């Protein structure tokens, strides 16, 4: 006698269909709370550590080349430096967009239960390069313009107060720069999160540059403050992990005896704030090691926030558009 097929069995089949792919350790296709999202971030990173690190190593190489240029232009005039730095910055920006786009594509593939194929995601990044580059440039220019306007506003406010009032309230000399840095950091983080949404919309939905920018606004609409909070939290977690790693490396550096090495707190400050020399005359072995450590740490923590933003993109599509149901139907139709 055949078994009866009831509603609970149907529910069980749907749930199994959305279970993680055991081979790829991809999370369930469902809406996640902040804690679940963080757990999924570190689970994905741990499961695919070498694949993600292999892709993002291109960022380490291009930034190392960029830093090296600092120490080769000491004796050059302003005109020669402009000739070198304009194409260098454009190239570094372009390769960074290419590498991070490939990492975003790789995370998206893993999330959808597919294996990471480095050549495939790099090929996709190359194929979509100009679309990603132009959109990234637009977002970068808008974000930079906002930061400049913010700087002008703070400079104006600094002149509004009489000099005698500022001298009597010295805390203002600290409060204004800190306030600017805090707001500027938040704007930068938000634009990076918006940029990741744009790259994903370009990749997943094959939209144009303008439609991709509008698409990001549509996904964020109605849940803006939740997304802002999660984006800032993810970046803060990545930043704290970076500080811990820098402190871990700064501790043995303090006792190496290299010339130019300061005390433990000074070394952490120099590394976290990138307070390192940018001329060949000021370069020492100790500073070169700090540069390498900084670039290595940035490369290591980059997948954390990239994975977080990719998962947040899919979370928004699931909440607003039922993307999980769409994928379930697509899988059953295969």
Task: Report what the structure shows.
With 334 residues, this protein is mostly helical. The chain contains 13 helices and no strands. The protein has helices at 7-17, 34-47, 49-70, 78-111, 118-127, 129-160, 163-168, 171-205, 209-220, 224-254, 264-272, 285-321, 323-332. It is globular and about 65 Å long. 25% of the residues are buried. Residues 1-24 have low confidence and may be disordered.
Provide the low-confidence segments as ranges.
Answer: 1-24
Instruction: Please identify the structural class as seen in this structure.
Output: mainly alpha
Mean of pLDDT = 79
Q: Encode the helix/strand succession as letters.
A: HHHHHHHHHHHHH
How large is the share of residues in beta strands? under 5%
User: What distance separates the N and C termini?
Assistant: 30 Å
**Tally of extended strands?**
0
Q: What value does the Rg take, in angstroms?
A: 23 Å
The helix fraction, in percent, is over 70%
Largest beta sheet, briefly? Answer: none
Shape type = globular
Number of helices in the DSSP assignment: 13
């Amino acid at each position: 006698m055949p078994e009866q097929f009831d509603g609970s069995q149907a529910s069980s089949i749907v749930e199994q269909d959305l279970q993680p792919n055991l081979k790829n350790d991809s999370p369930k296709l469902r809406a996640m709370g902040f804690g679940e999202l963080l757990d999924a971030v570190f689970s994905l990173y741990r499961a695919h550590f070498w694949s993600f690190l292999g892709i993002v190593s291109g960022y380490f190489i291009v930034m190392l080349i960029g830093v090296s240029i600092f120490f080769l232009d000491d004796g050059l005039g302003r005109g020669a430096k402009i000739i070198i730095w304009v194409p260098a910055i454009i190239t570094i920006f372009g390769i960074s967009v290419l590498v991070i786009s490939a990492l975003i594509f790789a995370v998206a593939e893993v999330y959808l239960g597919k294996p990471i194929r480095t050549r495939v995601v790099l090929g996709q990044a190359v194929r979509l390069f100009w679309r990603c580059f132009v959109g990234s440039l637009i977002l970068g220019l808008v974000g930079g313009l906002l930061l400049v306007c913010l700087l002008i506003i703070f400079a104006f406010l600094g002149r509004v107060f009489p000099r005698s009032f500022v001298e009597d309230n010295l805390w203002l000399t600290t409060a204004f720069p800190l306030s600017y840095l805090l707001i500027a950091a938040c704007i930068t983080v938000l634009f990076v999160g918006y940029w990741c949404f744009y790259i994903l919309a370009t990749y997943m939905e094959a939209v144009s540059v303008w439609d991709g920018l509008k698409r990001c606004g549509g996904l964020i609409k109605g849940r803006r403050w939740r997304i802002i909070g999660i984006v800032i939290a993810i970046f803060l977690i990545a930043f704290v992990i970076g500080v811990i790693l820098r402190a871990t490396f700064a501790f043995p550096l303090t006792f190496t005896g290299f010339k130019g090495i300061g005390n433990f707190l000074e070394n952490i400050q120099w590394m976290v704030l990138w307070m390192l020399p940018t001329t060949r005359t000021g370069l020492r072995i100790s500073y070169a090691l700090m540069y390498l450590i900084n670039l290595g740490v940035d490369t290591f923590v980059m997948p954390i926030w990239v994975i977080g933003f990719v998962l947040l993109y899919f979370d928004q599509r699931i909440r607003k558009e039922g993307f999980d149901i769409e994928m379930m139907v697509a899988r059953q139709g295969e």
